[in-house]
Design brief:
16% of the residues lie in helices and 26% in strands. With 214 residues, it is α/β, with parallel strands linked by helices. It has an 8-stranded mixed sheet with strand order 1-2-3-4-9-10-11-12, with helices on both faces. The termini are far apart.
């Protein structure tokens, strides 16, 4: 029987191997109420972190003549995936940086765009509208969008998650989006050495313009 529970776990294991990293599949905890992440990863510099891998499941193929319409609120599907996995890494976060890796086929590519990570992790996009007391005056609007509510990362919640990543297969790369509130951040430099397939991004300040390469 395969040691992997899902194809996404296999894909992440293969990615790590190609980078010269060791990804050890962890056994499920036997203690009641204790959750275990999927992997302990060691990079070429002997830097270690734990990773939990999840995926957007593939949809059934279209039957002849079928039309399928998809729609979602920006960031919501990704945030739901993360909320279902955050407890997997919480116990390990006392000793290791933690990473939640999200995979998905081409039909889910929009859910894994950088702007979706921005909305899911740091809050939905909003524009402030200033409504004057005088009804004869027109409302005014902020020049730029900003992050608002429903954020996965915050100063008082989910600080045990160091970062969240998307694993792309074509071309193969790992896009890591960092949690600026993490109690134990993921070390950027030690996961870059020996590979050009790992990208790191930190949150830009002041606007919802998104991500700055790190």
């Amino acid at each position: 029987m395969s040691q992997f529970d899902t194809q996404s776990e296999r894909d992440f294991y293969d990615f790590c191997s190609r980078q010269g990293w060791t990804a050890t599949k962890l056994h499920e905890a036997t203690e009641p109420g204790v959750r275990t992440p999927d992997f302990l990863v060691r990079t070429q510099t002997d830097y270690e972190f734990v990773a939990e891998v999840t995926e957007f499941e593939s949809e059934e193929p279209l039957i002849p003549g079928e039309i399928r319409v998809r729609g979602h609120i920006l960031g919501n599907p990704l945030r739901a995936k993360l909320n279902g996995k955050k407890t997997q890494v919480k116990t390990s976060s006392k000793h290791f940086p933690t990473l939640i890796v999200v995979c998905g086929g081409s039909e889910h590519s929009a859910k894994l765009e950088p702007i979706s990570f921005d909305a899911a992790l740091y809050g939905e996009m909003a524009i402030t509208v200033f409504v004057p007391h005088d009804p004869r005056r027109a409302p005014t609007f902020d020049d730029e969008m900003h992050n608002a509510g429903r954020r996965f990362f915050g100063a008082t919640h989910n600080t045990s998650v160091s970062a969240v990543a998307a694993l792309d297969l074509h071309p193969q790369r790992l896009r890591i989006y960092h949690n600026k509130f993490a109690k134990l951040p993921l070390d950027t430099s030690r996961t870059k050495i020996g590979t050009s397939s790992v990208e790191h991004y930190t949150k830009g300040e002041g606007t919802a313009s998104g991500w700055i390469p790190a």
